[in-house]
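Support case: user asked for a sample of complex input and structure output to validate their parser. Sending the pair below.
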Amino acid sequence: MRKFDTKVQLLKYKVLRTVAEEAYKDTLLKNIVDIPKKIVPGTEATMRCCVYKERAILSERVKLAMGGDSTNPNIIEVIDIACDECPMGGYEVTNACRGCIAHRCEEACKRGAISFDHNQRAHIDKTKCVECGACAKVCPYSAITNYKRPCENACKIKAIHMGANKAAEIDNEKCIACGACVYQCPFGAIMDKSFIINAIDILKKSDDNKAYKVYAVVAPSISSQFMYAKLGQVISGIKALGFYTVVEAALGADMVAYHEAAELVEKGFLTSSCCPAFVDYIGKQFPALKEHVSHNLSPMATIAKYIKSTDPDCKIIFIGPCTAKKAEIKKPEVRPYIDCVLTFEELQALFDSRNLDITSMDEDVLDNASYYGRIFARSGGLADAVKQALAEQNITDFEYKPVSCDGIEACRVALLKASKNVLDGNFIEGMACTGGCIGGAGCLTHGEKSKSDVDKYGREALEKTITDAIGFIKT
Amino acid sequence: MKITICIGSSCHLKGSRQVVEKLQELVKKNNLTDKIDLAAAFCMGNCQNGVCVTMNEKMYSLSPETTEDFFNNDVLPSLVAPF
């Protein structure tokens, strides 16, 4: 049974699970200092130079599992001592250079940065190199490598760099909390703050849903997760944790698509507001375009607002693939509706902290949304849903030209064009993560099949149209 | 008077949308839109007996087929002021 993509995720999970176990038993504060030793027992180091460093880093992970540094507003934090201070020399010629006579690298370099020694081996003049990578592409021996830190490579908006102590440093003015660096750092030195103990507290104080009810709102990307079990068993597992019931965020997506279509026609140009990292990016890098961001709340907040209208005293915990959602719920317009955010990683840790074997459970059901709400989880789904919503509202005299941006780099290109009024389109679907939400940093696994899993789940929805799914809610 | 219909997953799969649509239609047909307030809930804790509907704190078990009977036999009499 393979639950995670990497061993870093596994390590993070062990910390979350242990913290959750102690929190459930009310022994967290008493046993907190023993957690690192519990996870790394003995004297043999398996990850770092010695067990003491491993444990020191683990105690930092425990802190993050308990909400992290409250003075740092960012959801994403660097664990300084876990950062391996990777070399970052940029493009360099390696020993694989054979000193050939073709010198394609020299021809490819527009800056004249390549020279050759007496063995005909290439050298890069760092004062001239602009890190374009053209030389690396043409070398027949692949002898030119880019020494770039994985975190910097992952962060397409350049919000992470080497700090004064050589460890990675996040620029909070730029960071959109997408979590790309969290997933990519091979040493697990960057982590998202966890609110798993807040979730446990909410569940415990509900007194088995007697004091108030606790609703789980789950993101549609759940269909590409927990592949070792059936989706219905995951729902049973969530209820076994003490949730009163589970509602699809995709129903909120249906509502959003319906209203966004009308808003688009009214305004003529719109960007989506579903992805909190994308919305944050517009605010930080393209403030002039802020007025064009859809005024709809995200699907998560939309469905939560509706649930709270039916049950004002309830508490709602969102479970999804997203680290930026943890930042979104701090916004004043979202805060009243969502009480806590968990990732799928954290949900797995919660299951195991309670020793719940979901594979042995009966299958419960999850069916609130339409096909269109469910496909929001993957790139292109939102644009398809808005198209459908236009058709269902009989809006035929509007020429709909969506631009689906898969990943933050594509978002940047589209926003740049839009800011210069040269974008060939009138609706930007912005997803910060590659592939859409299924590529989120809080996913247990990221795979080729994720998109088809989402589409399959979409097709299984009882309701085939947006209007059918939200018919009752509109009234 | 408020009638709450469960639109949670289990009841939804058992036809709560059809129940809602039927009730909306009947309320309209009988000119009761100002007297009857149709509301939704996401679970009433009685999934086995869905579609769950609550009226005057009493829970009913409906299906799209029994909705009209419920309206005639339970909803309409409840609207008459008790003496």
